[in-house]
Amino acid sequence: MAEIKIKGVAKSFGAFKALHSIDLTIADQEFMVLLGASGCGKTTLLRIIAGLETPTEGEVWIGDRRVDHLPPRARGIAMVFQNYAVFPHLTVFENVAFGLRMKKLPQDEITRRVTRTAELMHIEQLLKRYSGQLSGGQRQRVAVARALAMEPDVILMDEPLSNLDALLRLEMRAELKGVLANSKTTTIYVTHDQVEAMSLADRISVMNGGRIVQAASPVEVYRNPAARFVGSFIGNPPMNFIPATRSADGRWQVAGLTLDGPQHAGDKLEFAIRPEDLTIAPGGLKATARVIEPLGAHTLVTSEVNGALFRAVLDSDLKVSPGDELSLVPKTDRIRWFDPTTSNAVREST
Ligand code: ATP
User: Fold this and answer.
1) Paired residues of 292 in beta bridges
2) Substitution candidate for ligand 1 out of 44, 45, 192 with most atoms within 8 A of CB
């Protein structure tokens, strides 16, 4: 069983704190994505789990073994990186077999495993080719096949698709998902691409500034961001935010609209709504349309509400022109609230 437990892991590079006391449990066979902007610490966390970096504080457990003092090789993990490290002077077969030869497995077992993983990754027709002759996409398949051939308990992947062009990325993403869902490995996958994260993950850990802000299913991080950062980072276009003030009757004033909201000690909150959770109807937020972008089935309308940018994704049958005064009604059950002091979500206690 390869449950991974990260307990109070912190990492400093000199005076710079790259990770602040991370606690995270990844279930056996779970696909966990570490998602965040460049520099948030995702690679550092992955490298600590791999054993390529030592934590300044904390413990890493794989199954019932504490591994943070063990070398990478003793941890039962395989890794796939962005710059796939496929050896150009070896054939595809030998590249995939590389780790198995290091483990001194018998030749028939090596052949069995190489053949099986080559089939999984659709590179069986390339086994005799030298890797230097392969395209980027093919090399990436070889790198994944090499990791899978090890039949590891844990696979760590750091932006494995980022060198591929958009179409190939999409294809490989679906393939990876299929292959890994059928394997018994626990996967930790680093990306800064939220679409990749949403499509692959059982759970996403959203990181910011060396901390995990939220670890939850893709739907949960999208629908119920635990903090303002998550709402603004996930979703394209991102969530809209408007300052809200409590009125005497306990309801909330949002850009001229009065709404029911959560119980809250302070008299200020932030109202938040996703662009697709708005409709044009009377009695809504007063917005002035600025830029209209047809997206096919929908139209992205960037407008101004109280002088701040506000985006709505509307049905493309609705005719909107720049300068139009709109009334945008938020779907009540999709409204979220954040504490402007802590940036944390404030849930309605109903
Ligand atoms: P990216 O997506 O750009 O790879 P990341 O989220 O993976 O970003 P890390 O590579 O984990 O970020 O880096 C986290 C922070 O730690 C960054 O500010 C980085 O500059 C710093 N850092 C990483 N490795 C070192 C190092 N060896 N020495 C000093 N600082 C480092």
Assistant:
1) 301
2) 44
Q: Are strands 252-254 and 240-246 parallel, antiparallel or unpaired?
A: antiparallel
Which one, of 117, 93, 124, lies nearest residue 182 by Cα? Answer: 117
pLDDT at position 181 is 83
- The CA 20 to ligand 1 mean position distance, Å, reads 13
Please list the alpha-helical segments (H only) found in 184-239. 194-200, 218-223, 228-233
Q: Is the pTM of this model over 0.85?
A: yes
Selection from 121, 161, 159, 125 nearest residue 141 by Cα: 121
**Structure-block tokens of residue 314:** 């509307």
- CA-to-CA distance for 135 and 140, rounded, in angstroms? 9
The pLDDT of residue 248 is 87
Nearest CA to ligand 1 atom 28: 13
pLDDT score, position 95: 93
CA distances from residue 185 to 1, 7, 35, 153, 178 in whole angstroms, order as listed? 9, 21, 20, 5, 13
Task: Yes or no: say if 204 and 221 are a contact pair by the CB < 8 Å rule.
Answer: yes
The binding-site residues of ligand 1, defined as CB within 6 angstroms of any ligand atom, are 13, 16, 18, 36, 38-44, 192
Report the half-sphere exposure of 27 (CA within 13 A, side-chain side). Answer: 10
Pairwise CA distance, residues 238 & 190, whole Å: 21
Q: Is the dihedral of CA 46, 52, 53, 54 positive or negative?
A: positive
Q: Which helix (H) or strand (E) is 206 found in, with range?
A: strand 203-208
Q: Which helix (H) or strand (E) holds 7?
A: strand 4-13
Q: What is the pLDDT of residue 83?
A: 66
pLDDT averaged over consecutive 10-residue blocks of the chain (350 residues)?
Answer: 94 96 96 94 95 95 94 89 78 93 93 92 90 84 90 91 81 85 90 92 96 97 97 94 93 93 90 97 95 94 94 92 96 96 84
Other C-beta atoms closer than 10 Å to the C-beta of 176 total 25
Nearest alpha carbon, ligand 1 atom 24: 44
The three-class DSSP label of residue 256 is coil
